[in-house]
């Protein structure tokens, strides 16, 4: 006969057929199988039972099913597996034809039914604790599918809290979406298909090499997360894609407040590199907020690269190059203190600078408006082929306290500066292992600075 879908095993919930008040087998008893909530002894109520062979095929068998002396159902004297295609009732009679058990719906009690229930679309609801730990986003949006068909600007305009936007390996134009306005919808996530490549002329990110968003992203809402893509506000986009020539920050998080819960990882940011006007843009700006988790970010060009004017940054790696102002900056001002910020590594410059119009500028600390910078940690600071490593701003009026750099390396750093300057506003600085060579200067410590600790290392082949 044609095969069936065996949904239910014919057995008692205890698997072995035993007497109700002892562990004795229901020897030489009989089993009747019928429709749910009916008397299965009545032939009119009975459902078809099948014998399941070892090869998985099924053969219909008559009722009742016999029970051997050991309490197992048998067919022609052999212990066998019996199944049905539906839920059923069951009656078990002993050798004296006295009913010992009746189950109106065996599947209600059958442990094997758990697998079936878990396989249903709502099966996850049977597992306790999932809602607390694995709540699904409110809305998954594959932007290349209907209704947006690749229009990321329209998708972001229609975003609701909890939306997750999935992007492909292509270019998305959102120029004009954010200008003076910023995103205010909380818990938005944007996920790309990988960071793209930079064109040889340094003017744009190359289509088809990764996910590219053309145009600035500005946010002031909590819970914004962005991963695995590039943001292009470089020369070409600024001059040819925007309706009129517009210079913008790449990614700007501003005013999200405390417990901002922001995340950034595997994001490449391109600002202007070749424009002679050198507009004062930021690659990545974090300002007036606390609570940022950063993985890897690559800041290319612009005036300010990696700009930290926030609190509670737990960072991984920032690679900054091509800037004509400063590669990175830690800054406090009247808008808020820069404090409690930690990075695993900050790398400035490139091993090979050929083809770049400007030498990369270095890092700056700026305690502006007499507001202290406090508790800054950099596991490793690497500077190569740049103008300097880390120096104070000319407008540095506040104190810079409790700064730690675990390892400092500077190679080919020339700009009429010491590669690292600790000025008279610095208190409680620790520089660990250091290697400086072929620089315009090594490490300069102002005599009025306080509690400065510098570990072992070398500084050689320098001008100063």
Major sheet: 20 strands, parallel
Q: What is the terminal-to-terminal distance?
A: 95 Å
Q: Calculate the mean pLDDT score and round it.
A: 90
* CATH topology grouping of the largest domain: Pectate Lyase C-like
Radius of gyration over C-alpha positions, nearest whole angstrom? 35 Å
Tell me the total number of β-strands. 32
Into how many domains do the coordinates divide?
A: 2
Task: Report the uncertain regions.
Answer: none
Q: Would you state the CATH class of the largest domain?
A: Mainly Beta
Beta-strand content estimate: 35-45%
Put simply, the count of helices is 4
Task: Report the CATH architecture of the largest domain.
Answer: 3 Solenoid
By secondary-structure content and strand pairing, the structural class works out as mainly beta
Shape: elongated
Share of helical residues: under 10%
Key features?
single chain; 464 residues; mainly beta; Tailspike Protein, Chain; Pectate Lyase C-like; 20-stranded parallel β-sheet; 4 helices; 5% helix; elongated
